[in-house]
Records
---
Amino acid sequence: MRIGGGQVNAVPFLRTGEALEVVPGLIVTQHSGEGKANQYFLRGFNLDHGTDLAITVDGMPVNMPTHGHGQGYADINFLIPELIQSLNVRKGPYYADVGDFGSAGAVGIDYVNRLPKNIAEMTFGSFGYRRGLAAGSTTVGDGSLLAAIEGTRYDGPWDVPDDVRKINGVLRYSQGTATDGFTLSGMAYSNAWNSTDQVAQRAIDQGIIGRLGTLDPTDGGVSSRFSLSGNLAHSSDYGQTRVSAYLIRSDLQLYNNFTYYLDDPVNGDQFNQLDRRTLGGFDARHAFDWRFGGFETQTRVGVQSRYDDIHVGLFKTAQRSWLSTVREDRVREGNAGIWTDSTTRWSDWLRTSVGIREDFFAGSVSSDTPENSGNAQASMASPKAGIVFGPWFRTEFYGNVGTGLHSNDIRGATITVDPNDKVTPLDRVPLLVRSRGVEVGIRSRAIEGLTSSIALFMLDFGSELLFVGDAGTTEASRPSRRVGVEWVNQYKPVPWLSFDLDIAYTRARFTDFDPTGDYIPGAPAWVGSAAVIFGKETGWFGAVKARYFGPRPLIEDDSVRSLASLIFNARAGYRFDNGLRVQLDVLNLFNAQTNQIEYYYLSRLPGEPIGGVADRHAHPAEPRAVRLTLAARF
């Protein structure tokens, strides 16, 4: 599925990450401050900060392995939505060119090379929201130079203001076309913020804090990202070649306190997570057409490689002051994937694809606890296949089957003792975990103006093993299965009006027996969205979008469940003939008193039993907010 940038920006969203909710069935939320990676939910997965959703921007991977806050951490706060040309969306482990982190899905974001008109805009809104954007293109030599800079300040509705200070820039030179040309891009991003994390519900119920209060006002973080990247495309009689390469410097300091005084009744449980890395890699691929026994065939071959040099640490702190080191590691981790696939058209109504991918992972850990140092390596082959019947009456039927993988934090593959006490033995986990999927579906345009699809899918994981960055240890989850259905619709009766309706249901369960239960905590069953979008190039325009995030089990026996949320966002505006635009967004239109995210675990407030209290912990949805944008295109 390919989604245009215009469709992404046609609906209002609260934060940058929510721009990705244009992907059917994807929920993007936040449990902390506005500089931290979002939390993603797709196809019955609580993907945490990106564990099984592979995100790329202009060919650069966003997911970070062996990260200080969680495996696959995917922070897209550096994204500038107005620069998006398209999103390429694929779901399931069925694509040979998608490797690690892509079992649930993959989203490839591409920026424009040239803007049709320069942009200058300012946005002012509730709770101290201010954003400015300037972007433009100009001809330089035989190509185009694109420049953009964005600045954001935001306090939010919280009792302790977020005090977000974000600056973001892009500089890009491009030449030629999408099939014969190149781009060179530089990006820079810096952000600092305070955060109101999820809080214990009992603290609100007892009046210790308000609904928008915090139990540790010193939580927050600092983040930055700098990158250089290039893309080259070349066509010849021998086929189409594409090569991309990148170099990224990423830094993150996070301060969180989720359990308050459970582990340290005197100083509190705040901890600092450090992740500082330099990574580089490339993706080279070639496609060529030929005939297999007289049948039209396209074959693609490719190789991808990545290397991360990481300084990662976990420290106990109080009000952001260092108390002790839990663990501090130097990690060098690399992976390479080689792949090929072939698509053959056997007739006007039948085509098939087969592919295979081999991934190699290796790395070393140098830990401040020598017992946890070591080397690890693993490889895994992942075959894929697909078939498409049709089209008949502008309708086609398809099926996919394939295997994929999920890498674990390499520290979990070398660990031997608990880094907290340096004594308790811990089991190592495999570096790679297998995923298996199967999907059948229908895609139809039989009704004029309506594009509709329905998919039935099943996805198995051998084990959802995770390295828990908050504790510095590995948590071995159980094997699981997700079975679900997605129904996606877009109806465009006239060029200036469209209706979207997406509904997904997933049954997510652990597949082994355990008396604690077989429900997967945080896994959503029902999600959905609906939108109405109207407007022409000039004159009135607007949109209304509703997003439903169904209740989730919070513990394995399903005895504690989260709230559901239904949030409406609305937009109305006017575009003048001279390029001026006035736009009003109303976020959480009906001021729903619900939560962005909920968890259930032990924590301890001052004066409570030393063993803590099991409770629901929630990060509330922001109340109704209004944002006014004044923009010019010239």
Note: The chain has one domain: 2-183+198-292+316-633.
---
Amino acid sequence: MTEYLNWQSKLTLEHVFAKGESFSFPSLLNTGFIYLSHIKEENNRCVLKYKKSCADEGICITPAPFNLRTKINEYGGKPFWVLGDQIYFSNHLDQRIYRQNIDLEQGLTNDPVVVTPESKSNQSRMYADLVDCAPDWMLAIVETSFDDHSKENCHSIQAFSKDTNRFEISELVTGASFYSNLVISNDRSKVAWVQWDHPDMPWDETQLWVADISIDDNRPSFVNQERVELVQRDTCEKVASAVCQLIFANNGTLFFSVDFQGSDPCNTNNFWNIWCYQFGDKSAAQVSSLPLEFGYPHWQYGDARIVQLDEHHLLTFATNADGDELFLINQETLKVSAISTANYKQKSFQNLSSNGRGKAVSVMLSVDTNPCVIAMNVDHQQLGVPSILLSNPNLISTEEVSVAEHFAFETRDKTVSYGYYYPPVNCDYQNETAPPVIVMVHGGPTARTYGYFDIQKQFWTNRGFAIFDVNPRGSTGYGRAYRDALYAQWGVSDISDIVDGIQYLVSIGKIDPVKVCIRGKSSGGYAVLCALTDDPDIFQAGACYYGIGNLATLQEVTHKFEKFYTENLVNERYESELSKLPSSRFYQRSPIHKISNLQTSMIIFQGLEDKIVPPSVAQEIVDALQENDVAYSYVEYPEEGHGFRQIKNNIDALTQELSFYRSVLSNK
């Protein structure tokens, strides 16, 4: 019987990060489809690739040096848009929009042509949600930043001319802090969008707006702008609501997802359900009423959960605690019908797309194999055997895959929290004792983890580690009440959930109580620091990726999108001097002030180009560790931001993290 820490694996980090092709946002064309990918040999340059059929090789149609990425709100999102026979994309270097004509029968031969103006001196523009509003005009959501930080970034909805000889811009909607989900009706007569203002985040309270599009003197404008008021159907109360996932159906009806603040956890208003808005009588009505999430927090732009499948139906999916479910919506009768997925194992879906003529594609995530792009064959409310359009070979045998087990556990305050457990699996070794565990905490904290196959998790489980992938309070996918439960309790209830989950797994013999490691990124890194300083007896090692030690420092340096997020999470308004006093929650919830409690070693990773959690935040942690004579390792990557992109850096980080865990735990 070999000690878990001595397990060896054939699954190398070169396999994990360098083998196979990345893919996201598949989009159907008249012939074949395109998708977003990365050329690893070119420093992970992000490009569009085209496949005519599943048997063909993906052909790169983005010439060098173009690199597709939008930096809007720092988190970005979908960086390209297919409009008719043209592709528009955001180029990473200058953030300008470029156009390519599509002629895939002959090959896409023309070079990209820039269609947005060069930014003014001291300014940069970033774009999202491009739509075609007239023969000569486009619409987009635009963020303008100021290089010298003399002003706060501003957001607007703008029209810009397709005439590359004039680069004309017309600002149509301003005044809100942020905009998202810009959509236009098929006849180009109506437009809708979501907007919100500080201090709210887009999953707190947003406004749904609609308008008519008028073309005067060949210039577009929005007329009859109107906010759509939403009222809970059962209580007839008007409360804060969060709207997302807008789409105009073929018949002109506007569909969207919405949840309501303060709803009973057992009420379906507690979940993102589908609603619709009829322009004729200006009425909003609830379409679905299920304890499922048809929406997701707006961290990034462009990930669709509702699409027009055919002439009369919308295709959508919703998240339950353990995966996703598919539904059809009749756009005329508003009937919602579940689609049987008996041909699929437990699954999740991302990047749903359709041509509106009965064909749809999606990235599918399964429990025991690599993600793949599938054609979704919907026949009489039955999803047929998936047609796999794009996939990567499995780098690990089926027998060695660690399959996630979703579980719920009771917390110390008699509520319920959730997580996934992955056992260590390696056919070359047998061990009946409880294994060491790596507790993984997702970012956000308004995000969630899923139980689908992740080759990086298999890297750990194949080397003798169990994984506890936790969804503490504040996570999405379990209803709004669970998500909102973290407000005023950040750094408290989420940490107690993590510890309670560990103790539950110990009680049923799933993990070794003296070999517990914890890792997290961004706000997950903050959770790591809180857990290590609040419950030092529980953990033996911690890995913090661009985490947060001092909430006051974060508040002073973070970007506009999350400017008031920390204030909401601790339920206190930030004041520079008062927030540094021990009486302040900013002080009390900052693990930097409790570093002396640490009984474990730490390893810290930081990108020096991070604008969300800047290097100064990490350096403050390092200084505190030095002052308290705590053993640590600190690793910087000069060309990385918030989330590491370069293969060599990801390989280096996990190599050091594995060595760190083994070194620390081998003495336990």
Note: The first helix runs from residue 13 to 18.
